[in-house]
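#random but structural
TW: two for the price of one
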Amino acid sequence: MFIKTFKIRSKYLILSFAIFLIIILPIIVIPAIRNTPNTIGYLPNGETSDFLELWNIDTFEGGSSSRSVFLEKIAIDFENQNRGVYVIVKNLTKEQAQLQLEQGYEPDMVSFGIGAGDLFVDYLDELSSTYSVKSDLKNGGVYQGKQLAIPWCMGGYVLCSKNEVDTSKLLGNTENLIGFGQESTITLKALPSNTYAKSSIFASCLENYTQYQAYQDFLQNKFEILIGTQRDYFRLQNRISTGSIECNFSFLEEYSDLLQWIGIFKNDKEKTTVNAFIEFLLSPEQQKKLSRLGMFSTNGTKVYDDIEHQEYIEFEKSVNKITKTANAFLTYEEIKREQQNVLAKLFK
């Protein structure tokens, strides 16, 4: 009888204690969590939520994975460190972004590549000069004397050849020697300033020819040397690892327009949070994660320094020497005109 009574009383005690915890814990714990110090210093008590929208527009091939997915992961890390802040990343084409703007929809931030900047130039606010980006690259985001965009990641150009083909043959007169894509990029600017034979250019390169088409034609031996990007390098490295191809690479270290820019839209919102997000994106800790993307840092952060990514070490060294880029806000017409100017200058 005593044991039975003890068990009943124990159940009541446990139940009462559980009810006590349910009532008391929220009163004690929630205020403590809400008042946890914020690492960046805004939204101190988490009293309101701050929703930010970031558009990503890709105009050239990336590295090994999606830039929008990469930004989503950065956004999650940022949200975890800044209670009450939510960053929504939307991947759009330039045409989709234009339609959104025409319908009155505007984001808080936009990430874009060359050939899309002219769509946003009138919407962007002037940026702080304190962002950690190499000055030679940062200058590409200046429009009419104002810093309207800064690059948060970049790629580079590389000469790719198979078998025993030497990339120094660029100085020769071989027909169909060189292939490259240039939808919105000014690829030929990456070549050393020499005079080349016009007959050496693969004919399709003179049309609206994509980089992926150039990669495919290179595999089919339609030309000998591919002016490739970080994406082609990734694809070819995968083939090398399976033993299906042998390649020689010569990294170009003077010019790249394969930069992804970020800018802030003009609106009535206070800019502390968006500035904090960009600073977070450019921080060494986050920039080192670009190894997951197969691209490179714009502020000199060493991204590839381990055995797992050793094939990117020399590529990164060359990219870090780049001092020239295209303006982020060139129009389609200006890009096409510059493509023709460079072609006429280099190839006789």
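TW: number two ↓
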Amino acid sequence: MIIGVDYYGYGFDQMFFDTPIPTSELDEVTMGAGMYDEMFVSVDEDIGQDQTVPDDWTLKTIMDADFNNSLEAGSIDGNGHVVTEIQCYRREYMSTDNEWQLVAQFDYEKEYNLYTVVDRFIENHKVYQYAVVPLAKEIMGKMLINKDPINSEFSGTFISDIGANYPMNIDFQFSDMAYNTNMSTQVPLNGQFPIVSYGNANYRTGTVSFLPLTPQQEFGYTNKIDAHEELVNRQKVIDFLNNGKAKVIRRDDGDVIVCATTGVKTSLKSEAIDNISTVSFDFTEIGKLDYNTMVKAGMIATAGKSVYTYDDAGDINWNQEYDRDGDERSRRNVVL
């Protein structure tokens, strides 16, 4: 058959194949002589016929080739170099301090076509803008900036590290916070008053306590306490607090504390309710939430990697994911 032409004018009903185009594995496009500035290919049937190229790259976009001094096609521009890594940056939208901050960096592997980054270290009540930059070893490609800012808004207090996030909503208590500085005092022999010299230390310490519960118990999905499940959940929280990694406490008032946690303790909720226990810990602030602290504390995120294809109708099929050794991983239906 000829694409766009049917037999005897009967439309789709007279097609021999399931689709009007019986080439389900079409993977090559050839362009003839002409002058082109851009070529856009998509399986999204909702795109109109007005020949206007969409501004955003979506999961159903196949190719968006910009021929302005380049033959590259894709959602990122490597300036003609082979992409080896990808970086993700974040900055506060419409702020006087508008510097980009690195939040994630990971290897680019051609076996995957979707990369998902979870940014756990954001402040409440702020609007952020994100960008992606491809790397060809040490050569940076063109920065791709998202057009729609993202509003950060959450309720409660959370504690997170690079791999986990725990809410501290139930029976949350913040002790008196100490603002620590260092100083030295010298008393001269011939003077009435001492000489005081201040150092550069300026950090916070305190104690936090909260009641960790399973989602089933916290949100009232059950009216009976499963002592074993609560123990397993509580032990995960204790192991998290004692794993030796830097943590970030994010409060709903917008305060952010990058800290180390020590002195983890548990205490029974009450003598009558001994199946659940409160967890408390001490924290010491170790830096600001900036690039230097995040790099030194191992807080630069990596990405989850997924694979998807399309069916004959142009809908997305999520494939099973495999690692380099061929072991099957769990499927991740995630979108960045």
